[in-house]
Each structure stands twice: as C-alpha cells, then as structure tokens.
Amino acid sequence: MPDLKRKFVDLSLLAFAFYLCGAAAFSGYFAKWALRDGDARYDAVAVLDGTAVQPFAYRRLVPALANAVNDSLPASVQERLSDALMERNWLGRDYGRATQSGERTHILRYYLMYGLAFAGALAALFVLRRLALDLTDCAVTAAIAAPLFVLAMTLMETGGGYYYDWVELPCMVGAVLLARRARFGWLALLVTVAVLNKESFLFFALALYPLLPRRVPQLRRAAWTAAYLAICVVVNAMFKLHYADNGGGMVVVHLMDNLREIAAPAGYFIAEISYGLPFPSGFNLLNIALVVVLVMRGWPHVPQDLRRHVALAALFNLPLFLAFAVLHELRNLSFLYVGLFAVLACALRQWVMTAAPEPRAWREPSR
Known about the structure:
Mean pLDDT: 94
Structural class: mainly alpha
Oligomer: single chain
Strand order of the largest sheet: 1-2
Radius of gyration: 22 Å
Order of helices and strands: HHHHHHHHHHHHEEHHH
Number of strands: 2
Largest sheet: 2 strands, antiparallel
C-alpha cells in the first residue's frame, strides 16, 4: 500500500509539472498565432464552418470534434456556456491575436478547439516521456527531455503555426511507440485519427515500416503497412472530393522561392519573437549549430530501428519540404520530430551520466 501511495503521489506531481509545461508552451504558441484569426482562408470560423481553402479544409479532426461536442449539447446549455464565455473571454482579453474568440456564434466552438489543441500538447508530453524511457531507461532524462521538446515546439512554429501541429506530434510519437511494440490494430486506429488531423500523415505511416519488429514475419509487416497506406489514401480521397470546390489547391509549389532563400545569406541570421523574447528563427545558424551538436552527441546512441525510420522519414520529408513548404517554417519538417527528440533524449542521457556517474544515498540536511 505505501508503494501504491508513493506512485500515486509521484504521478500526480509529474502530471502537474507536465500540465504547467504544456500550458507554458501552448500559451507561447497561442500568443504568436492564436487560431489564425482574421485570415478567411483558414481561420477558426472557416475551419469550423467547413469553408477553409484547400489543403486546410482537409484537416478536420479538431474542428469536427469541436462541432460534434457543441452539437451534442442542448440548446439551453450552449446558451449558458456561450453567455459565460462572452462575459469572461479570457482568450480575447489575454491574447491580442485571438480576435474571433469573442464572436458569439462561434465562441463555444472556438474554446473547444483551443482546449482540444492544448490536449494534444499535454498528450505529447506523456508519450514523449514514454519514448525517452524506451530509448534511455532513465526517468530523469525522460522527465527533462519531454518538456524541453514541447517548449521548443513554439520556437519551431516559425513563419506560421496551426492548431493541428499540436495534435500531429502525439500522433507521430504514439505511432512510433505502437509500431515498435507491434500493436498493429491500435496503430491502425491511430493512423485513422492522425490522417483526419493532417493528410500528410500518409508518408509518415510508410516511414513506420523499419520500426516494426523483425520477429514479425515480413509478409505480415508489409500487409499491415499496406493497410495503413490504404486508410490514409481513402481518407485523403474522401476529403479531396468533398472539399474540391473550396478554392485553394492540394499543394502550393515553393521550390524556386526556397532555392532563392537558401542562396540568400540574410536567411541564416533571422530571428522571431517567441515567449515575448527574440529567438533565432528558421535556419538561423544558431539553430543549425544546436542541431549539429545534438546529433553528434546523441545519434550514436539512437537504436538502429529508429535510425532507419528517421532516414526513411527524411527521404519523404526533405523533398516535400523543399518543394511545397515555405523554407523557414520548421514545423513542416515534422516527420523528423521523432528523430530530433531521440537525439535530444540520448544526448541528455549522456549529460546525466556525466553529471552524476554514481547515485548517492539521500542524506538529511544538517541542522
């Protein structure tokens, strides 16, 4: 019983610490971008009403859930909740970019979208911790690495940031955990959820193949991978047909613009305000140097299956990023998030081992 009580206390403290870190990270993101309020192409009202342009119209998970919860409530409850939110509206009060949070027709659904996106940030902390434990077998490393990465997410939301980015992260990490454990059925369910959130998960699903345990027959691994691909293709086709008249396009080509940006020296010294302070942004040389140091320190300790996954994810992500993303929007390199977190966790593990090579017994402080 004492052990059970201790575990409950430990878990409660961890949950509170993660809630605090998740709130800080998500607040930093929301201060920068909110729900892209005011841009009729893809703002909160547009995605909730299904009028957003392609490809933003395809990213239905969060707005669809917000609409479903709203519609499931009796009209009287909707009215009372909307009245209470209109009276307080702390998002509109505290975040200058949240201009649509005070629109009565959408206020309840706006707050639901906000809550669901934050839930993604909170879930990311727990699944990242689990992955760090798998990689390092060190609770201290896991407790540091997960919050660090989620706090850095706001820094990676450069040039643009969206609610679905915060759901994409736990989906990708969860998919890696399930793939390494050969939980094929649960992984199929998660793939469905993830592709409803963002259509590009199709490519990440393919990159999971190297993570499937070798003990599983190759034919079975290939069959399940084909099934995941089929799920993504069907969902994508349904959305593309349904929103074909919404304007925009399936992709926007930025290849030539990106090549010009790569050749421009000024792009390696750009900065952006995050958490109310200037930070290096995009492919700033400081960011590049930090990643190089982490890779040098952590990559040799990353397991082989995860290395193969990162290589395959990079094979998909880098050409897509160069051709269709805006160069300094680091969030569009999201297929590499798991790899970046892996080198961060492994690098931190080396630091922890160096800083405290031998565990010491607890001693009461002298009085």
